[in-house]
Design brief:
single chain, mainly alpha, 6 helices, rod-shaped, disordered C terminus
Amino acid sequence: MDSTTQLVITLIGFLVTFVASFFGAYFAFRYNYQMELKRDKRQVFQILMIYRNAWADEIEWIKTMNAVSVVFSREKRVLELYRTFLNQTKTSVDEQVIETYYQMLFQMAQCSGYKHLQVSDIKEFYNPLGLDKHYQRETLKNEPSASLPNVQPLDP
């Protein structure tokens, strides 16, 4: 084999190694990014689910709500429901606001890999009587609004 052929083979070997390394790093980075985003989506969803009966009484819930627009920035339906929810809570909190919140959680669940979770699962939560004392709320027994959170409207 002459020196020109050896040089070409060496260059091709170097080029293949370089391209393989580049694409390997690129796909590893891309995979890692996707996994982190999925983890972030699940974390936001789980925190909002944990506090779905406490709402703005918890600072962690407020911080997490403020992260929704970042973590779900590519999820059009989640963002629509999030903006609707924010607009609705500027005036009052009623059954429609609660329903919007549940729908937003449902859409988040779908985007986060919880494909079998239903809205009815989201609406059901453990709410012991002692929780009302913890949040210093009055509970109206057998009233449909008894499960509504004690959220004050935001000042415009």
